[in-house]
Amino acid sequence: MSDTYTFSTLYEEDAFNLYNSLPRKSQKAVIRLMNFEQSNTHGFLLRRKRFKEMYAFDWKTRKLLSMFLLEKHPIFEGEGLPTIFESQSDVADTVATLGKNGYAISANKLTAKLPMDELLFQSKDKTSQSFSGKTLLEAMEQNNPDKLAGTYWLKDQNTAAQMPEFARIAFDPYILSVVSGYLGCTPIHVQTNLWFSFAGEQDHKTLSRNAQFFHQDKEFVKFIKVFIYLNDVTTENGPHCYIEGSHIDELNQHGIPYSTRLPDEQVLSFYGEDKLRIVEGEAGTIIFGDTVAAHKGLPLKKGSRLILQLEYAASLYMSPVCPFSDLSSEAKGAIHPVVLKHGRLFANYSNETREIYEVIPAKRLKPKRAWQKVLGSYRHNDR
Predict the structure, then answer these.
(1) pLDDT band (50, 70, 90) for residue 150
(2) Are both 142 and 190 inside the same structural domain?
(3) 299: domain range?
(4) Which of 117, 141, 332, 377 has the most CB within a 10 Å radius?
(5) Contact 268, 244 (CB under 8 A)
(6) What is the CATH number of the domain that holds 311?
């Protein structure tokens, strides 16, 4: 694709005007992404080389991207399809709230019981011991007799993604309708993650590693996460927190590089305390969040917390994640046949691509440290 890209007829005038309102660097970044979409290149091979371009994709640029992708990858509409949730009546309102605030709490709740006994979990300190889901669930139920502290993350997301119980949620028509409506195109499922958190003494490094300081994600150019509390969460046991509206007025626009961990005082000085939201909720509470917004998990004062996280991207350009293997027959059996026809949803499922990813040295898959130095040159007042 060249600079003379033919805009979708559906949004031709709006897209043309929006494109011309962007800085030249943002225009070029969008064009490179669309060239990627028309190629056979693996997105993860571009992350190290092009990550600095992430700064070009602010709210307006991401909106333009959706217009470009929409023609070939239309918004998924699940109305009329069976869902495991009570209703799909709040889809439009939820999408609208997401657009305004960056986050939205669903009117639905997850009631399904998930099989976690055989899954393995480990802290981000790779030298630490692995624990089975069964062991960690027992620790939660018995008030943590072994005094576990910190956060234990799912070791292999592919294992969970292939299980029908998790696939049924990830590809439920209600979930897909909300995330697709927000992304403005067909979503790609890229993560099924779980983690246990336990109260206890933790140093600054551990809190940072476990995302318990405010920060901004930039895993994909445009993405959304779905957080589901699997136990009751109050201010005592680590609720999710976010800054309302900071998906538009991003931290990086205040000179803060992506993923930088920040104290509350600094973040609140940018946005004001009135924008801070703390999400308490019963087990099953569903939180849709664009974590480009400033967010964190509140450190636990007592007890424990268990969260399921799903993530969806508009494009695999500069993907940071290991692809899943081909979708298992068991997982396919849990997904509605109409959903299975939408191949774009499963673009991150491929044995062949997973094998390519797994043999690449980790260093080649990570952004260069120097990318933080380019922040200033990607501000949108730089034409």
Answers:
(1) confident
(2) yes
(3) 91-360
(4) 332
(5) no
(6) 2.60.120.620
